[in-house]
């Protein structure tokens, strides 16, 4: 996707003024926060499992080269093929090559953030191969030519009326008179439409939540079953995964799985957890004839040994964005990058460069909730601070944030800017302070509140109220 | 340099501790002798306790279940399930000897179909190799015995699991997997299934029956 992170502030203002989006974003807290809390409370070992998971991944990263070699040897021994890609471009070429060899016209896809990261769909389309997203949320946003606004709930920014509109627009073979007012009708329609696509597809592409070095297996975790149909019904299964997805053993995988679903959706376990190893065996009655894994670096090796190495422990559960007041206020698209929320604020500058994503590490209130819920104990606020420092050193920071209290002078000279900036502030602060009416940090003006609490503002800024009353 | 060497050498450049032998040994021994980590106390129960927890967790995940002491009752129970759900008396299954031994031929009410599914089946039956009490999860292995398409394509999936095969936790399932397959050997897929297919992608409303089965019915035998 085209990165629009440089326009984060404009994106944020637009998001805050979009009533439809604001209504949909209400589902983030409703859907995720309480469920995670309940799942965590029901498992006394949860905190100990977090420490264990961090230790597993830290060990993997310290020995990543060796584990990748061991993993590759097992994949090959089970009849699969491993391909290595340094960049997004190389990865796309490798995948296209596999599709071409299979004479593929259409490919089905399970949900995969790495395939978003390498912009796979556009590339396949340009080369005459039709990619079909099969995860319901991904399918919906593909119909809208949008990108995911959340790493596990890609269509969370939409309401059911919008989905109905899209289905009526695209599924023109179905009668106009059909009733699509209930979500279940939308689901059934997508199920029926996509069933045809699985059988017609030549290649099935999935991501991987984990790669198990011990057995050479790739692991997908889904609730819908679409990833399994994708990889079972195509002639060829292609797994696209970044190099840090490795875990050593089946037991290590089990340990981290206990955190993944609980942190993501509050389930004890997702509905389908599938370990896939190699292609169909001679005696198997179903399954793909070829199994390929494309291992992608695309910026990861540069994070090793840097202050951002810890980010490579991320298991993409989404808990950090589900608990982020900035994400709640502006949604995922405002970040303008593949990965939104706190994990995106750290990862995007690593992958795309701080020069185009400098606003993202600033899109934080440093409230610390992301780190406190991260199952992998990734110090997200600390790393956002590192990015701010780097940005400062490179002198790329906007004047306002470079000079701490100088922010006043900056805004005083730009009244219009001040009005909208404090408008964002008001809305954000209103939400964040709703619980105790005190705030310990202020977005876009961190320097201000480092040493003092501000009372949470209620309502609108003076200027906005003045204009409203004058107009009335 | 090819991409593989380029990636590996970039990693090595920052990982090298000066004692490469120690690093290699640590990795080799971890892979050769996999060890269990923290295992939640939730599933550490006696046999009946595990079965009760397993059934509880299955129900929580939206599946239905029943238990029978006698394997030979399974065909009649399956027939009753199909009738209760207004389904044609037809079931697809693989060649699992445990299913074959149940005596479906003696149940004239059901027509049995064999082999992988092409998507037209309304109901199928599989035999699980293990049940995990802590999460209410079935472990199924792909292959001719239980084709993986039966787990995902039919509207209704019936799964038989022996009471004796219900363990407390995922580590127990992994131990069983290694016992059945041998260390480092895997079937094409190991499918851990916890409930019927579902989606919450439209307004975070949980709906059952996304792409996989709309209903999962677990039959515990013993
Ligand atoms: S940073 Fe942590 S909380 Fe956020 S997606 Fe990654 S693992 Fe989950």
Layout of SSEs?
The complex is a heterodimer of chains A (472) and B (222).
Chain A: H1 8-16, H2 19-41, H3 46-62, H4 64-77, E1 81-85, H5 88-101, E2 106-109, H6 113-117, H7 120-126, E3 130-133, H8 136-143, H9 160-170, H10 183-200, E4 203-206, E5 210-212, E6 217-222, H11 226-233, E7 236-242, E8 246-247, H12 250-264, E9 272-276, E10 290-296, H13 300-303, H14 319-322, H15 325-330, H16 341-352, H17 354-357, H18 369-373, H19 380-393, H20 399-402, H21 407-412, H22 415-433, E11 438-439, H23 446-449, E12 454-455, H24 462-471
Chain B: H1 3-15, H2 20-32, H3 47-60, E1 64-68, H4 74-84, E2 90-93, H5 97-100, E3 111-114, E4 123-127, E5 130-132, E6 137-141, H6 149-152, E7 156-162, E8 166-167, H7 170-181, E9 189-193, E10 198-199, E11 207-208, E12 215-221
Parallel strand pairs in B: 1-12, 2-3, 4-7, 5-8, 7-12
Antiparallel strand pairs in B: 5-6, 6-9, 10-11
The complex binds iron/sulfur cluster.
Structural class of chain A: alpha/beta
CATH level-two architecture of the domain at 43-298 in chain A:
3-Layer(aba) Sandwich
Q: Which percent band covers the strand fraction of chain B? A: 15-25%
Q: Structural class given helices, strands, pairing of chain B? A: alpha/beta
The rounded Rg of chain A comes to 23 Å
Major sheet of chain A, described briefly? 6 strands, parallel
Distance between the ends of chain B: 60 Å
Rounded mean pLDDT score of chain A: 86
Number of strands of chain A: 12
What is the level 1 CATH name of the domain at 43-298 in chain A?
Answer: Alpha Beta
The radius of gyration computed from the alpha-carbon positions of chain B, rounded to a whole number of angstroms, is 21 Å
State the low-pLDDT regions of chain B, or none: none
Helicity range of the residues of chain A? 40-55%
Per the CATH scheme, the topology name of the domain at 43-298 in chain A is Rossmann fold
Q: What is the CATH superfamily classification of chain B?
A: NagB/RpiA/CoA transferase-like
Provide mean pLDDT of chain B, rounded.
Answer: 95
State the strand order across the main sheet of chain B: 1-12-7-4
Strand content of chain A: 5-15%
User: What is the number of helical segments of chain A per DSSP (H or I, 4+ residues)?
Assistant: 24
Q: Percent helix among the residues of chain B?
A: 25-40%
């Amino acid at each position: 996707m085209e990165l629009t992170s440089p326009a984060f502030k404009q994106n944020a203002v637009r998001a805050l003024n979009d009533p439809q989006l604001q209504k949909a974003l209400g589902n983030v807290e409703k859907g995720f926060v309480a469920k995670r809390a309940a799942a965590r409370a029901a498992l006394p070992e949860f905190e100990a499992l977090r420490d264990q998971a961090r230790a597993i991944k830290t060990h993997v990263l310290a020995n990543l080269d060796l584990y990748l070699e061991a993993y590759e040897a097992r994949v090959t021994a089970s009849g699969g093929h491993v391909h290595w890609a340094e960049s997004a471009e190389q990865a796309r070429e490798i995948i296209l090559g596999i599709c071409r060899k299979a004479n593929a016209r259409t490919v089905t896809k399970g949900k995969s953030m790495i395939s978003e990261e390498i912009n796979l769909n556009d590339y396949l389309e340009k080369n005459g191969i039709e990619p079909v997203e099969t995860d319901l949320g991904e399918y919906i946003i593909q119909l809208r030519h949008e990108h995911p606004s959340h790493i596990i709930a890609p269509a969370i920014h939409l309401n059911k009326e919008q989905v109905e509109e899209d289905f009526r627009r695209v599924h023109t073979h179905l009668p106009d008179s059909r009733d699509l007012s209930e979500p279940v009708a939308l689901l059934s329609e997508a199920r029926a439409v996509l069933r045809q696509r699985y059988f017609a597809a030549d290649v099935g592409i999935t991501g991987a939540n984990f790669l198990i070095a011990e057995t050479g297996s790739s692991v997908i975790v889904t609730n819908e079953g679409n990833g399994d149909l994708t990889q079972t019904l195509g002639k060829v299964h292609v797994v696209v995964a970044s190099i840090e997805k490795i875990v050593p053993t089946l037991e290590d995988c089990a340990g981290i799985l206990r955190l993944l679903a609980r942190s993501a959706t509050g389930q004890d376990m997702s509905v389908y957890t599938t370990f896939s190893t190699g292609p169909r065996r001679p005696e198997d009655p179903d399954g793909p004839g070829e199994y390929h894994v494309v291992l992608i670096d695309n910026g990861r090796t540069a994070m090793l040994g840097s202050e951002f190495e810890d980010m490579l422990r991320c298991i993409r559960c989404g808990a950090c964005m589900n608990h982020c007041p900035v994400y709640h206020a502006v949604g995922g698209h405002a970040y303008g990058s593949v990965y939104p929320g706190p994990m995106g604020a750290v990862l995007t500058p690593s992958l795309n460069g701080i020069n185009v994503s400098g606003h993202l590490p600033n899109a934080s209130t440093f409230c610390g909730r992301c780190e406190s819920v991260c199952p992998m104990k990734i110090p997200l606020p600390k790393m956002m601070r590192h990015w701010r420092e780097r940005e400062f050193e490179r002198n790329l920071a906007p004047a306002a944030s470079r000079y701490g209290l100088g922010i006043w002078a900056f805004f005083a000279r730009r009244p219009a800017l001040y009005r909208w900036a404090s408008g964002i502030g008001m809305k954000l602060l209103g939400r964040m302070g709703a619980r105790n009416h005190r705030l310990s940090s202020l977005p876009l003006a961190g320097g201000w509140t480092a040493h003092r609490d501000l009372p949470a503002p209620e309502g609108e800024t003076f200027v906005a109220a003045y204009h409203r009353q004058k107009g009335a | 340099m090819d991409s593989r060497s380029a990636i590996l050498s970039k990693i090595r450049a920052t990982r090298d501790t000066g004692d490469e032998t120690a690093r290699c040994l640590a990795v080799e021994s971890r892979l050769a002798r996999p060890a269990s980590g923290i295992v939640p106390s939730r599933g550490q129960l006696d046999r009946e306790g595990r079965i009760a927890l397993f059934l509880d967790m299955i129900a929580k995940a939206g599946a239905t279940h029943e238990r029978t002491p006698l394997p030979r009752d399974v065909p009649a129970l399956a027939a009753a399930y199909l009738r209760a759900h207004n389904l044609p008396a037809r079931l697809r299954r693989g060649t699992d000897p445990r299913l074959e031994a149940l005596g479906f031929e003696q149940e004239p009410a059901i027509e049995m179909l064999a082999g992988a599914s092409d998507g037209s089946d309304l109901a199928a039956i599989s035999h699980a190799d293990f049940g995990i009490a802590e999460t209410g999860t079935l472990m199924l292995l792909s292959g001719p015995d239980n084709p993986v398409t039966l787990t995902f394509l039919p509207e209704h999936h019936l799964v038989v699991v022996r009471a004796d095969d219900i363990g407390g936790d995922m580590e127990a399932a992994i131990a069983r997997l290694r016992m059945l397959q041998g260390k480092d050997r895997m079937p094409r897929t190991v499918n851990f299934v916890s409930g019927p297919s579902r989606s919450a992608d439209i307004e975070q409303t949980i709906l059952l029956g996304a792409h996989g089965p709309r209903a999962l019915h677990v039959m515990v035998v013993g």
